[in-house]
Amino acid sequence: MSPPETQGAAVTVSGAPRAGVLELSRGHPSADLLPRALLARMRAALEAADVSPLQYGAEAGDARLREAVAAFLAAEAATPEGARPRPERLFITAGASQALALLCTLFTRAGDRVLVEDPTYHLALAVFRDHRLQVVSLPPGEARLEGLEAALARFRPKLVYLVPSFANPTGETLDASQRERLLEACARSGALLVADEVYRLLGFAGAPPPTLAREGAERVVSLGSFSKILAPGLRLGWLEADPALCARLERSGLLRSGGGLNPFVGALTYPFVAEGALREHLQGLRRALAERAAVLGAALRGALPAARCSDPDGGYFVWLELPGQSSAAARARAQRCGVDYLPGPHFSPTGAFGSALRLSFAPYPPALLREAAERLAAALPP
């Protein structure tokens, strides 16, 4: 098998690709999915700007950007007039991770409990550890909502965190009835519900699932990000919540001291959002991700017929189960064969899912995803 090409190669957080390894462990877009048109619009915006983007920004974020994001979200979701997101319900952030950390800082204290799905986004668990929170997990699959009310009553968590649409790592999406049960249970408990919705707009067909942060839901926060739909290097995102909760964020020491988050990049990104270029880019991104998901899924099913492979309707990830095998033990062999993934226990607060692994189809074009499946099959016992 040939070494991976450099075009479209995933990069590590340090920015350096690992030579010879197809890194399906990374939730990064490949270089060909990043819009060069954004750079041109940023240059034009920079040349036309006055010095205001160099100043401290408004705590909630620039009003024009919030209005543009509200209009973008309404258009993408085909939202009825009366249910469209209002700018006063939006708060500009430095990405979903920063937003989650800020919410933990303001609404939890060390020793508080946070309720999560199992499996869940592994680096959210790292944020919770940073804040010394006790993580309590719900059972996987359909059983998670069955146990939700009992867990809320027993553990009285301050915060409930989940990825409701095209989830990281499983690719699953809550249906309408599950969303209603979740919202009702959390409202009765008084816990802050944090919906990490960074993949919500990356469905492969049809309108995106509705946000959980609807009007009247006073203790629900939706996290959005330009990282997954535009470019992760921007470090720019938004959250949607009740205006009173947004006002609490504005009063935080961080925002009062430093002003708005990433106002310079926000000012340069604004034209791309406001003028419709983001919607156009997103259409092509969805098509590319849908093709990659289909190619990787088919290649895995062909190369590993005994494995169980998810069939995501959106997002970045495939969840693969290897009956009778340890994904953690097989990882070193996979790396020697030139492919990498994240073992299932990374995503579990209980260390479960030892035979599962997560693969990202975003970092590579279809030909290299087929190659990755072949390398993975070569690394695993027959």
TrEMBL record:
Residues 21-376 form the Aminotransferase class I/classII large domain. Coiled coil: none annotated. Pfam families: Aminotran_1_2. InterPro entries: Aminotransferase_I/II_large, PyrdxlP-dep_Trfase, PyrdxlP-dep_Trfase_major, PyrdxlP-dep_Trfase_small. GO terms for molecular function: 2-aminoadipate transaminase activity; pyridoxal phosphate binding. Gene3D superfamilies: Aspartate Aminotransferase, domain 1, Type I PLP-dependent aspartate aminotransferase-like (Major domain). PANTHER family: AMINOTRANSFERASE, LD15494P. This is Transcriptional regulator, GntR family. The lineage of its organism: Bacteria, Thermotogati, Deinococcota, Deinococci, Trueperales.
